[in-house]
Amino acid sequence: MGVIGVLALQGDFAEHIKLLESIGVETTEVRLVDDLRKIQALIIPGGESTTIVQLMDTFKLTEEISGLVKDGMPTWGTCAGMIILAKEITEDRPKPLGLMDIRVRRNAYGSQVDSFETDVSVPVLGEDPFHAVFIRAPGIEEIGSEVKPLSHLNEHGVIAAQQDNVLVTAFHPELTKDQRFHSYFLSMVYGS
Ligand code: GLN
Fold it and tell me: How far apart (Å, rounded) are the C-alpha atoms in residues 158 and 156?
């Protein structure tokens, strides 16, 4: 089984790695272009999207990652990672990679409720609700016709979606003990 890379420039990459290792998957931290040669799939974690994008540019990762994702590498962005993968964002910064046909607003839940947890239904994960942790979370304002919504949160709309090899979640499955979202991503990588 191929190695799962986790972009490890800033943010909560260690939590993704811990959860993947608890499933028994081989992982590697991605910081340099050379690290990309070893991986079969990539997770872009939560954190600060402006910082992550800046560091991706510094380490010359932006073009390389975009090329691999366009060539079909399974890629999952959680929270800041979702902002980075979007086609468009409502703010001026950062410049997203444009790899999923969604328009995203940063910090969509406002400063009063900037972080919260709630159980959501994610039909592809089965009947049991998924405990979703939102931290200064982005919102999806518009999705293209090729994008499949995987979960909704009442008036906030779509909170998880997939377009072919690209998966996004506005929340942080890596901050729970529930392995189901990671397993879903692994089924995109290795087949189910
Ligand atoms: N608010 C952050 C941003 O705009 C994302 C927060 C997160 O990843 N938990 O980049």
Answer: 7
